[in-house]
Write a structure and sequence with these properties.
By secondary structure, the protein is α+β, with helices and mostly antiparallel strands. The protein contains 3 helices and 2 strands, in the order E-H-H-E-H. A two-stranded antiparallel ribbon has the order 1-2.
């Protein structure tokens, strides 16, 4: 059985700035929400960049396999 872990890549400042600018433009280029745009951009990019990474499970020992066969 493989366990799925997540690997988070942090977005760069340039990526965050570009997305924050998109949000600013989408809002009609009104000022006063630059910090909110930055945090929203950072949150969105972090959510997109979290990717599942398979982690190999440790092999069971002979004793644990035998126990599973006996006990079910």
């Amino acid at each position: 059985m493989n366990i799925i872990d997540t690997e988070t890549k942090r977005p760069t400042n340039a990526e965050i700035a570009a997305r924050a600018y998109e949000l600013y433009v989408k809002r009609g280029r009104t000022s006063g929400s630059d910090v909110a745009d930055w945090f929203q951009a950072e949150t969105e990019l972090r959510a997109r960049q979290t990717t599942p990474v398979p982690v190999k499970a440790a092999k069971r020992s002979s004793a644990s396999r035998l126990k599973k066969m006996v006990l079910g």
